[in-house]
Predict the 3D structure of the following.
Amino acid sequence: MTSRRLLFVTYYYPPQPGSGTGRGDAMVKYLRRLGHEVTVVTAAPPGQSPSTHAGVVRTASLNANPIVRRAFLRGSERAGGAATQRLAWGTMPAPLWKLIVPDPWLVTWNPAALRALRRLLRERRFDCVITSSPADSTHMLGFALGRDRPAWVADFRDGWCFEPLRPPFPTQAQRRLDAWIERRVATRADGVVSVTAPIVEYFRDYLDVNAALVTNGWDPELEPDRPDGDAAPGGSFTLVHTGALSGPRGRDPRPFLDALRGVIDVDRALVGRIQLIAAGRSEHDEQPLIDQAGLGEVVRLVGHVPREEALALQRSADALVLITSRDRCEATGKLYEYMAAGRPIIALAEGTEAARIIRETGVGVVTAQDDVSDIVAALRAALRGELERRYAPRHLDRYAYPGLAEQFAEVVEQAIERRQRVRLQTGGRPGAA
């Protein structure tokens, strides 16, 4: 494969915490391993100045500015906390989400990112620009580069108009504009990629765009040793959930907590022997839900831990717990970490992409999100060792690097070829700006 010079544009990139940064981090690393020269354009962390180092250009971002963030937080406090949308780095006031189409990053980050992109394109030739969302407005950067841009691949880690993470816009005019921008981006990009089959089907069926499926996955080089300190004592049973128990799209841990309570009510001897370790930053106070279920002695909330510790916790578990919403497209980065952990998964995920992948790979059992009796049955099977005995993973290489980077590189190559054909057909000069 020809070595290419690529620009990878994403707001979410390490050292920002969260599993959402893992795709960009791993994709860039393995694209470089394949011989491509990759320059990342992203946002500088809060409190840090814009910088360029080791192929990563970090630009200014208003919502990472300490003064702006304090103002946002003060506004949230005055409104009782309900007027903001929590972000990994600070908050966004709700009026911005209700006003700006497609999202607030259009004004808080895109201007600085666009300046950086144009400067880089003036300084040297690039073969392809890759825009990776969220935020959706990141893709507008590719569109804003104009007709003289290099090839452009739009990488969708979440749906835009299809099962979006954000709440709907309040006016029909905004919703129409949002849909128009999505269609404009998808049809103008030289290549479109998404991480789940339902989103790919949406692009193909509703926008007539031949999108490619390149799923999320795990980086085998990040696999840690099993920890010694966090596992339950001998004879006990440890369930592990990493990431927030509650979450967007209506992800609700209460059915699982009710099922766990039901299992313990039948066998009180399990108190002191079974535990659920929940590691992750949450937007919600989940302790009251745990106390209401009477599980204060069983569930241990350990808060945010570094990714390495989260991966080690997963490998220490007797079984892993995955809770999803009902959205078809949901298959979070956590799922692929679980698949790499080598432990059986109890997934409250019926009807989702996560359920399809778990059944395809044989790494666990799937229940309905709110079927307490079904979840009880899965927990009892785990306690009896049945899930462990039935655990028979297959086809895991489909969801691991470097294979995913190789698939992505093929899409990039096709986009470059398409861009060159368009230039020749329109009489434009080949190459980049």
In short: The chain has two domains: 5-217+401-425, 221-396. Confidence is low (pLDDT under 50) at residues 74-90, 228-233. The radius of gyration is 23 Å. Residues 221-396 form a domain with the Rossmann fold fold (CATH 3.40.50.2000).
